[in-house]
Amino acid sequence: MVVSDRLRRAIALVAATGLAVGAACIGMLLLLAVVGLGVVQTPGGRDLLARGVERLLTGPGGSGVRIGTIASGLPARLQIDRIEVADTSGTWLALDDLVFSWKPAALLSGRLHADELSAQRVAVLRLPLAGDEPASAGPASGPPRLPRPPIGIRVDRIDIGELALAPTVFGRPMRLGIDARLAAENPGVEDGAIRTALSMVPLDGDGGAVLFDASLDPRTNVLEVEASIDEPAGGVIGGLLGLPHRTPLAVRLAGHGPLDTWQGELRASAGGIGSTGLKLSLLWTDEIRLETTGRLDVEATLLPQLAPALANGLQVQAAVRQTSDRALAVDALQVAGEGIQLSGSGAIEADGALAFDSRLSVEERALAAGGLGSLQFSAATVHAVAAGTMQAPTLRANCTVADLVAAGARARELDFQVDAALAPTAAGAEGGSIDVSGVLVGLHLKDAPLRAAIGDAPRFSLAAGLDATKARLTLRSLTLDGQAMRLTGGGSLGLEDQRLDARADLAFDELNAIAKSAGSAVSGGAGLAATLEGTLQPPAFTGRLNASFTRLGTGIAALDALLGPEPRLDAPFAWAEQTGLNIPGLRLDARHISGDGQGRLNADASALEGQLRLTAPSLAPLSAATGQKVSVGRPSQPRCPAVRPTRKRRSFCDCRTLPSTRRRSSKRPSSFVPPPWSLDQTAD
Asked: Which has more pLDDT, 525 or 46?
């Protein structure tokens, strides 16, 4: 069966350790028979025996076993002060004070009987290299006819005083005490049953234990199992399962019957996460099939938005099968709660190829009131298909949300598609990608100008990807196509350094419909372009905003005369959490008027200060706009009738010349050009 990576490593580690220790002991006994009992009664003879075993188990590149001093007591008692097991990268396993005590006379009755197999300390410095791990078994065919050894094997006591696992093994250091027993009887002498018992106790922390008792009769293939795990927060099994560090774990497993019709029950609880009670059925014929039914209770605090769906628990049904070619097939999976249902099926082939199809439906009654803020919907469905390989999976999901309601907006339906891929890490390659595209159908916005701009069926798309190190997320493209506008953008975000850079362009082909909904007569096209860069932590950004217009008409003749059809606005800015918003230089460029200024808004938006200067080289263009000639007043009599100073705002005019509607004197030359006219306005 497929297990998590941590559990797979644990199984491989136990197998590799057992093979290493077993090979050393068996090699010792074989050489002992060759060398003879008399020779090994001397220190020199025992050293000769140790070196012979080392040569027997030495492989290429320095891999093999190194044996320390052998104490007296052979052949009934083998005691070695230290054994080191190495691969081509060096020592990965060390055993201190190994003892193997057995009864040679038991061989006469067809039994290998060991009183003790113990080690004071076993240190696993790291996992062995992949080539040193035991190879997987070949294809299965029918229930296993497990261990029917030619002689009976009995180990009364297996004791490891301390099993020390380095942090590189499972992500954090662990110290365990292990006690076990093993009996595999000779079918020619006894009943042939295999019985085992295991107790594993953490040596650090607040206690806990893993207990396992099992027996298997190879003649009838009847398996009886009783197992339990009681762990406080931070336990070994919880760590292997990837549970949060502060999660206590309690598990009970019991079952009895032949392997082809085995029945069992599993009960488990993880503090703060949930609990489950499942009935298990194992059908082991040419294929291995596990069926389970039961209930899963999830703590509502983990998913408060789905509290109604979780209130009465989730009903679970699953049928998982391992085929003869070692593929894992999920024939059926169903998880159902109040207003929510998940179903799926698929397979993982022996070579890692993946194919899985799932469907999820969520109704409004499954959600807590206000669980999604102001967002509401009547029903949502997701159909997802996973493919590719376990190392590089791909996902395509089609999603539909009906009767969507949010603040100031509602839509009859939201349809979108998600394509995602996770690529294996490789230099210069992309670590993963996601593409999203969809449409809002029957959209209605409360804000009239926004409704006119976006329309009732806007389309959107997004394409993003991770770099090979999965340290930077890049938004390659973002688009929103509405009725009278188009938004495009992109950027990137460092997932570690929190550095952000972004760009966005907003284009309006025609402003007339938008302006009309707001009671204005503005027409023409407009474009806004913005750039932004900085850091999210601490939050600090710099950027620039540019606005440009084409065929602009404001509906005000005098203003159109000054601005012309293509005015432009440029405004660099900087923002920081402590200092607020600063616009150091704003620039307006139009046909007959220009402007410059600056402004500052403090962090809590309670104070604004700024200055704006508008300059017109000539007011002559106003003549055509107003239908009468515009002249210039006397410089000695400036007036600013359009500006009213208040207590919090002071305004002034730099009026070297002011417009006047008085008729020109016939004595003034017709070629007279009025000097520039400007207006300065400062706000506090």
From this structure: 525
